[in-house]
Specification:
Layout lengths: L3 E8 L10 E8 L4 E5 L6 H9 L6 E6 L2 E5 L2 E2 L7 E4 L11 H11 L4 H14 L15 H13 L5 E5 L7 H18 L2 E6 L2 H7 L2 E6 L2 E6 L1 H6 L4 H6 L4 E6 L2 E3 L2 E4 L6 E4 L9 E6 L4 E4 L8 E10 L4 E7 L4 E6 L10 E6 L5 E4 L13
Parallel strand pairs: 3-9, 3-10, 7-8, 8-9
Antiparallel strand pairs: 1-2, 1-4, 4-5, 5-6, 10-11, 12-16, 13-14, 14-15, 16-22, 17-21, 18-19, 18-21, 19-20
Helix pairs in contact: 2-3, 2-4, 3-4
Main location: membrane
Subcellular location: Cell inner membrane
Protein name: ABC transporter ATP-binding protein
Length: about 375
């Protein structure tokens, strides 16, 4: 198996450094990890994957695999000499070939003996739960089965690293969810390093050991699913990783690592980062599940609000609660906790789970509130 070391990787397709697809990316991807490159369209995640695969030459920076230099501005090891497999979004299986013929193709290129190739194909198909379907053609398979064929074709050559470019995006919701589980189990069984590209936050959270959140061609945060969701490094990550309320506020006092926000409609005491000082204009990032609404009375909560919208989503209720200041908070509750539009509710915010950032236009230094 192999780890990947990326240092200061930069790539522009236009020659304009100001419009680079990727800027100074540095990542350390450990062996036997499931790592996801996550971000919106145009963030640089596919460029990163293609650079790892050897399909593009970087303008600056290097990529090492298990200590071996495979990419630099002056030299790129060809894709077929990197010990990697790749699975594409559109499956890329040959429609005129059977499942067996699709999967065995890479072994034929390597001139492996027929007996050994058959054994390899059988093991690969077993890994992806496709045993017994060797003679079928792609048009006789479901979308999920075609994706398994693409996985088997990559696994049969026993790659050290498997690269996956949004491989589940063409599947329906239920099949996509089932394939997530199968992919994670497959990675654990094989011990192969998986590098996975997606724009789907839920997919990244469900699959990954580590997530690299990207935006504007730059790495924003690299950490575990819990870290990037609960401890975002900046507002971009907080806003991208699931639902979040961004609430403007001002720190009235800071002492001993704690800050106080006082206002007619919102009062909180919370841990603050080292850069925070009294008078700072800040933004609070508050997840909907970290807000509680109830009818205990205004004196028991940080704020009073009016329920202005309600949506039943099966496993949760989602409410929009409008504070007297006009600030709207998105709140999620247990489905049995019922409120009607127009109800007056008390709002309690778990301050220990808030993230705090300098407000736009203020100094750029940002940090996560440490609870």
């Amino acid at each position: 198996m192999a780890g990947i070391t990326i240092r200061n990787l930069t790539k522009s397709y236009t020659g304009d450094a100001a419009a680079a697809a990727l800027t100074d990316l540095s990542l350390d991807i450990a062996d036997n990890q499931f790592v996801t490159l996550l971000g919106p369209s145009g963030c640089g995640k596919t460029t990163t994957l293609r650079a790892i695969a050897g399909y593009i030459t970087p303008d600056r920076g290097t990529i090492h695999v298990d200590g071996r230099l495979v990419s630099s501005p002056g030299s790129v090891v060809p894709p077929d000499s990197r010990g990697m497999g790749m699975v594409f979004q559109n499956y890329a299986v040959w429609p005129h070939k059977t499942v067996f013929e699709n999967v065995v193709f890479g072994l034929k290129i390597r001139k492996m003996s027929t007996a050994d190739a058959r054994d390899r194909v059988a093991r690969a198909l077993d890994l992806v739960n496709m045993t017994g379907l060797e003679g079928r053609y792609p048009n006789e398979l479901s979308g999920g089965q075609q994706q398994r064929v693409a996985l088997a074709r990559s696994l049969v050559v026993e790659p050290e690293i498997l690269l996956l470019d949004e491989p589940l995006s063409n599947l329906d919701a239920k099949l996509r969810e089932r394939m997530r589980v199968e992919l994670k189990q497959l990675q654990r069984r094989t011990g192969i390093t998986f590098i996975y590209v997606t724009h789907d936050q839920a997919e990244a959270l469900a699959l990954s050991d580590q997530i690299a959140v990207m935006h504007g061609g730059k790495l924003q945060q690299f950490g575990t699913p819990f870290e990037v969701y609960a401890k975002p490094s900046n507002r971009v990550v907080a806003d991208f990783m699931g639902l979040v309320n961004i609430v403007p506020a001002q720190l009235d006092a800071v002492a001993g690592g704690r800050g106080h926000i006082a206002g007619p409609h919102l009062a909180l005491e919370l841990p603050v980062p080292d850069w925070a000082k009294a008078g700072d204009d800040i933004e609070l990032a508050i997840r909907p599940e970290n807000i509680e609404i109830n009818t205990r009375g205004a004196d028991s909560a940080a704020a009073v609000a009016t329920v202005t919208e309600r949506t039943f989503l099966g496993n949760i209720n989602e409410y929009y609660a409008t504070l007297n200041s006009g600030q709207v908070l998105r709140v999620q509750t247990h489905p049995l906790q019922q409120f009607a539009v127009g109800d007056t509710v008390a709002v309690t915010i778990d301050a220990s789970q808030c993230s705090i950032f300098m407000r736009a236009g203020a100094p750029a230094s940002t940090s996560r509130v440490q609870g």
